[in-house]
Every structure is written in structure tokens, then in C-alpha cells.
Amino acid sequence: MDTLTHGLSSVLLARATAPESRDAPDSRILSLRTRLTAGFLAGIFPDSDFVLRLIDGPLAYLKYHRGVTHSVLMLPLWAWLLSLLFMLLWRGRYHWKAFYAVCVMSLGIHIFGDVITSFGTMILSPFSYAKFSLPSTFIIDFWFTGIIGLALIAAWIWRRQGQQVALAGLATLALYVALQHLQAWEARDLGQEYARHQGLEQAEVHALPQPLSPFNWKIVIEQAQQYHVTYVNLQRKQVVPEPDEQAGMFARINAIYRPQDNLAWQTLPRYGEGIGQALARDVWQQEVLKDIRDFMLFPALYRIEQREQGLCAWYEDHRFILGDARNVPFRFGACRNGDSDWQLYRYQGDRIIPLSP
After folding, report:
1. Is the peptide bond before 214 cis (omega within 30 degrees of 0)?
2. Are 280 and 304 in contact (CB under 8 A)?
3. 182-234 pLDDT, tens per residue?
4. What does the pLDDT look like over 115-157, one tens digit per residue?
5. Which of 82, 101, 121, 321 is most deeply buried (CB count within 10 A of its CB)?
6. What global pTM score does this model have?
7. 3-state DSSP call for residue 204?
8. What's the Cα-to-Cα distance from 98 to each of 49, 87, 163, 255, 330, rounded to whole Å?
9. How far is it, in rounded angstroms, from Cα 337 to Cα 48?
10. Last residue within a domain, chosen from 237, 269, 301
11. Which residue ranges run through the membrane (predicted)?
């Protein structure tokens, strides 16, 4: 989930759980403005791990993003430290305990908002780096954010009923996520039906949430040597005509998703085709690509090519591929000259960026 949505969802939760205000000052009870501000700041705190990219480049970001700052095991400690920080920021006007519950709730709803996306969250860090995901929501979901925004605006307009309005907003948000989970099951059922009909053995079916609509899904059927991929809109009855060259980005994305009864399945090899397959498999198992293997969920060969740096094999993750768009994030590979060791690179546009020490 994007950082702004995390902050706003924390504000909504803080508003929904705000105690009744008191006329007399009380260091144990935050004012509403202070409560909402602290909720927002605590809600965006876990994404402060973006500084890893600035400190140690994209590889550290891939390894540790959504790690220790997103851990449910570390949550009580982070909440305590943030409470102390907020006590200092508000110059001792409130006791740190007044901030603690808000911080716990804000961190908790942030972690929840990330777990329901497909990126993966290390909720047991630092004791385990396993990534957990219950993918129901695209990482930038305008409907999800819109529900939160409308609820906050309504709570501000109807201030006397602000708590009830915020609670209604949270309930609506919960129903929306529940609807998305139902859509995920339906999308997986379509994939399982296709796998049975095609006689695909040892196939694992995945449904990934997509942009623009909760009814847009990408279905990935994973096998050892290949993937079967399709894009579906679970409520669409007709195929959207191919947009012309002048169409905007949203129109082009919208046209990708087809009705359930008119799906266009693609079979995509994991390691390419032809004589390069053996090389692609060999390079993928090199130690220099270990962190990339740990990160990519649906890895596939992008291309093998000869560059100034030597022979290069590039890999991408079908999790981040949208239709025929080739501007794919997180594309990595390895290159070597002759019998030298393989060196790790990131493929970004037409440039390649060295990542090996």
C-alpha cells in the first residue's frame, strides 16, 4: 500500500477510537488534533525503511523493505519508541502512555494494509525473513484510498458525529476488503478450472489483484518450466475494444482485462526457449543471484544478450508485469566476460547498473 494511504487509514482509525473530549486538560488523554497527527505519523513510520535504498542501493531495499519496521513482533517496541518521541515533540504536554495505544493501532493497520497486497511482508522479522501475503488489494487502490478519504471528509463535516462516521468508514473499508477476497477466490477457481481442463500437472494457481478495479485480476498458473497467465475482469460481459494510439494509460490498462468466458491465456516459459534455456537455468542458480531468487515470486528470463560487460542473462518477475508493457520494475541479471565470475546488475531502461561489490 502506498504511504499516504497508510497515513490516512491510521488517521481514520485514530478518529474512530477517540475518547470523548474533556474540558479540563489531562496529560493522559490526547486532544483530537494531537491524536490524529500522531496517528498519521505513526502510520507512515514503517515505510521509513525506504532509506535503505539511499544507504545501500536497491538490493538492500529488496532484501529488507517491509522487514523489521513491519514486524508484529517488533510492534510493541516501535510503539513505545514512537510514544517517547511524540512526548518530546509535544514538549511533555502528554505522558508517553497517552500516545501508546494510538501508535499500536497505527502500526497495526499499516502492517495489515501491506499484508493484503502481493509484495510480501516480513511480519516475523528479525527472527524470520519469510514474507507473508494475503493478496486481495493492489498496491495503489484508488477505491480503497477513496473510501478512507470520503470517511475522513465526512467526519470533518459532521464533527459531532465524527466518531460514528469514522466507524462507518472503517466498516465500509472492511467490507470492501472482504469483497476483494471473494473476488480472489473466484479468480483462483477460474485458474484451477483451466488447469484441470488442460491437464496441467503439478500446477499452482495464484490470483493477483490488479489496478483500477477490484474485479480486475491476473491469474498465474505456475509450473516448474512455465507459467500460464491471463487477465480477467470478473464482472465484464464484453471484450473492451483495443484502444487507439492516442488513448491514455488508464484506457490501455482497462482493455487488458477480459470477461470470464473469453479469456486469452498465454503460456510463458520460465527460462526462455531454444538453446539459451540451459544457460538461463544455470545463471539463475548462481550465488550472485541468491537475493534476487529470494525476492522474485514468479521469475522468468527476460533476455540473454551480449554487452560490453560480457554475456548477460536478465530476469523479471511476472508479479510486476502488466499486459504487454515492458517498463517492468525490479529487472535484474548477471554478466561475465569469458571465464570470470558472474557479476550482478540491475537492468533499468537501456542502462545497466552494477550491484556486485
Report:
1. no
2. yes
3. 999 999 999 999 999 999 989 999 999 999 999 999 999 999 999 999 999 99
4. 999 989 999 999 998 999 999 999 999 999 999 999 999 999 9
5. 121
6. 0.90
7. strand
8. 26, 9, 19, 50, 42
9. 39
10. 269
11. 68-90, 99-124, 136-158, 165-182
